[in-house]
Amino acid sequence: MENVISLVEDRLKNGQWKLTNRRKHILTVLLENRGKHLSVEEVHGLANQKAPYVGLATVYRTLELFLLNDVVQSMDFGDGRKRYELCDPGSGGQQHHHLICIRCGNVVEFSRDLLKGLEPELNMRYKFKVETLQLNVFGFCRKCRPEKGSHQGTV
């Protein structure tokens, strides 16, 4: 955990920012909840359990600062709430994708290079510089799948 905190601190310093105590509390919440997709309100609630002086506005600003510095990525799972997830500094830029159940809201992550080749094609064809590439697949999880006779695909 300390290694990631040091990496984030260095990244922020390169952008002329500091890892203040409040930002460190927020980063710790993200580290302790790695693999979860937390809303601003959820991050705020968890941060306040350890540091009650961290305000909601501070959480918003910090998450946007972390987003700007590639510490977190944000995503929208179609529920009207922006969610944040800690970027894995050791992933070498490998993306993961999400299967999202439209009935229960369950999110399953999977890693597979389904979008390989898309980024250069978009750049060449449309002169579009891709910054982030995400694939969110909406459907029904195993528990929520419609009964036989309804349209259903295999996962």
Automatic annotation (TrEMBL):
Listed cofactors? Zn(2+)
Q: What protein name does the entry list?
A: Ferric-uptake regulator
Superkingdom of this entry's organism?
Bacteria
A Gene Ontology biological process in which this protein takes part is: negative regulation of DNA-templated transcription
- Write out the coiled-coil annotation as residue ranges: none
What UniProt keywords apply to this chain's record, in alphabetical order?
A: DNA-binding, Metal-binding, Repressor, Transcription, Transcription regulation, Zinc
Q: Which GO terms describe its molecular function?
A: DNA-binding transcription factor activity; transcription cis-regulatory region binding; zinc ion binding
Pfam families given for it? FUR
Q: Which PANTHER family match?
A: FERRIC UPTAKE REGULATION PROTEIN, ZINC UPTAKE REGULATION PROTEIN
Q: What does the cofactor field's note say? A: Binds 1 zinc ion per subunit.
The family assignment reads:
Belongs to the Fur family.
Task: Please name the InterPro entries in this protein's record.
Answer: FUR (IPR002481), Fur_C (IPR043135), WH-like_DNA-bd_sf (IPR036388), WH_DNA-bd_sf (IPR036390)
Q: Which CDD domains match?
A: Fur_like
Does the record carry Hydrolase as a key word? no
| Residues that bind Zn(2+) | 101, 104, 141, 144
